[in-house]
Amino acid sequence: MRKVVAAGAVAALAGTGILLGSSAASAAPATATVAARQAPAPAAQPTGKVVANGGLWVRQDATTASKRLNLLPQGTVTALQCKKNGQNVDGNRLWYKVGAGKPGWVAARYVQNLAPVPYCK
Predict the structure, then answer these.
(1) Per-residue pLDDT tens for 94-118?
(2) Can you say how many angstroms the Cα of residue 53 is from the centroid of all Cα atoms in its chain?
(3) Dihedral pair phi/psi, residue 48, rounded to 5°
(4) Whose CA is closest to 76, among 105, 101, 54?
(5) pLDDT in the model for residue 38
(6) pLDDT at 85
(7) Which domains does the chain have, with CATH numbers?
(8) Please, which residues bridge with residue 76 across strands?
């Protein structure tokens, strides 16, 4: 029974960094572990699903007159970086900037956002 209690106490203290050895080599891994636990997780980009029949064109700017860059098929889930007002498309002036390192804008009228999307700065 004492061995189990002692092992539990050692494990609990080891996670706090109290049981660091006198050498720098043994201190580094424990410090890195504590730092890794405290680092905030990166925020995931919001996503949206293309709901337009026939797909949705990614445009160079937030207007249907701008250059077509890419066609997203219906049902595609894509990262959305931010939103801004642009050309009115079927009663909706919002456009989403496509995220994940891809350039371009899509009309929000044809994208079902799956998470809140912030306005562009």
Answers:
(1) 999 999 888 999 999 999 999 999 9
(2) 27
(3) -145, 155
(4) 54
(5) 61
(6) 98
(7) 2-38 (no CATH), 47-113 (2.30.30.40)
(8) none
